Amino acid sequence: MTATPAWPPRSAPRLFTDQPLATGGALRIEGNQAHYLLNVMRLAEGAAVKLFDDISGEFLGRVTARGKRDLMLEIEGQTRPREAVPDFWLCAAPIKKARFDFLAEKACELGVARFVPVLTDRAVVDKVKDDRLRGTMIEAAEQCERTALPEIAPLTRLDALLKAWPEGRHLFFADERLHDQGGVSLAQAARDHSGPAAVLIGPEGGFTDAENAAIRAHPAAVPVSLGPRILRAETAAIVATSVWMAANGDWGP
Question: Alpha-carbon distance 37 to 235, whole Å?
Fold first, then answer.
């Protein structure tokens, strides 16, 4: 007796689309994605493709027609709903392009809901390309089987961020000065402060004294230590996100 093929196929390529997905619908794939499916994966008619749209979850499509530069898919059905995302923001000063792209990639992999580039006095970069960050996050989500993408906020000055900070959201402030002063660890602070949260990571040169004072004066701010070692900006952001996810996110049993 022939075994029934697994549904959905585990080895099917996976792509993001900005077109809403629904069972029974049709989807045309063009551009770089079509090149990938046609010339790299060499998909034939009837081949499966997993699709997600950041709105309705993940669906399985089948190739119904191949062209030279495009192909048509029929949407068979939903494989998973859109995942629930922990209410956590990563607010980080821009750093050099490759390292900031790396940070955006890891923010997506770790489950950040909102990614906020923050302009500070010592930031070595004062411009951010949202489309490049989004492309990096899409690639990460495709590979890591995420069904949701982080929202990318516009580059915001630190003073404007603090002024418009929403009530009820904790702002964990990674302060490298705290460890030698016996400051509370992020792990402990996260356990003590449940609910919507964000972590604020400074630039490579750290926050100025004036910025440090302004953050500490904010009623939502919770100064925390990330341990005894000075971490690079992208490392600090990844560590802080991981610690919060373990304490209050969706990494628990």
Answer: 34
Amino acid symbol at 13: P
Buried b (16+ CB within 10 A) or exposed e, 109-136: bbbbbbbbbbbbeebebeebeeeebbeb
User: Which tokens hold the place of 169?
Assistant: 């959201």
| Consecutive H or E run containing 73 | strand 71-80
pLDDT digits (tens, 9 = 90+) for 71-120: 999 999 999 999 999 999 999 999 999 999 999 999 999 999 999 999 99
Q: Note the pTM of the prediction, 2 decimals.
A: 0.91
Count CA atoms closer than 13 A to 19's CA, side-chain side.
Answer: 13
| Cα separation, 67 vs 209, whole angstroms | 60
In order of 56, 78, 184, 194, the CA distances from 23 in angstroms are 11, 7, 50, 38
Using one digit for the tens of pLDDT, what is the confidence trace for 118-170? 999 998 888 999 999 999 999 999 999 999 999 999 999 999 999 999 999 99
